[in-house]
Specification:
4 helices, Septum formation inhibitor MinC C-terminal domain-containing protein, 42% strand, 2 domains, alpha/beta, 25% helix, single chain, Transcription Regulator spoIIAA, Pectate Lyase C-like, 202 residues, ten-stranded mixed sheet, 14 strands, four-stranded mixed sheet
């Protein structure tokens, strides 16, 4: 998964990025930055990159040197707060979530969900789920639901094992998750633990 947004701000660029495949990320970033270079004589950028490793930072410096891009600075993209809900979503209700949510329970068939962020469901997912943005991801223990992400059409998905549903090239993609350790990794267990610790402390 690679997400890159480049915004022009007061004569320079701000590059926002999230990725889990370094090679794909740098290939796409090089293409996008070269396009920006063609459009402007003053070429400089500030980078907001999530979980940038030291190795990838060196690689980024080399890329910027190759295309004559002046680096204005770096910071990490802020992690969004994450909510926790225990219990099933039920009773033919419509739910709207604006932040990432961990759900310890099921989403029942009569439920409609509109989400603006990732949804992590440790339970069975049914109903209708509409994710508004391209970077939204659905993680579920299993599902038999009608799902849409961004500008795709709704699709009936039936999967009886842990899975990840995401958006790529204007299509829904499904990645099966095998094994308990892999499932925990896909659910970003450190993030889950942090959210749980925060909830307990309050």
């Amino acid at each position: 998964m690679v997400q890159i947004k480049i915004k022009a701000v007061k004569g320079s660029y701000h590059v926002f990025a999230v990725y889990d495949d370094a090679d794909l990320f740098f290939d796409e970033l090089a293409q996008r930055l070269k396009q920006c270079c063609i459009r402007t004589a003053r070429f400089e950028a500030f980078f907001h990159i999530e979980n940038l490793t030291q190795k990838d930072l060196v690689r980024l410096f080399k890329l910027c040197e190759q295309i004559n891009l002046k680096i204005l600075g770096f910071d990490e993209m802020p992690q969004p707060s994450i909510g926790i809900h225990e219990g099933n979503l039920r009773y033919a209700r419509e739910y709207e979530f604006t932040e990432p949510l961990i759900l310890f329970g099921n989403i029942e068939k009569s439920v409609s969900v509109c989400a603006k962020a990732n949804l992590y469901v440790l339970g069975h997912v049914q109903g209708v789920l509409d994710f508004l943005y391209a970077d939204c991801v659905l993680y579920a223990s299993s599902l038999c639901a009608n799902v849409r992400i961004h500008d795709t059409s709704f699709q009936n998905l039936t999967i009886f094992s842990p899975c990840k549903v995401y958006y790529e090239k204007r299509e829904l993609k499904i990645e099966m998750v095998k094994g308990e350790k892999s499932w925990e990794k896909q659910l970003q267990l450190p993030l889950v633990k942090a959210a749980l610790e925060k909830a307990v402390s309050h």
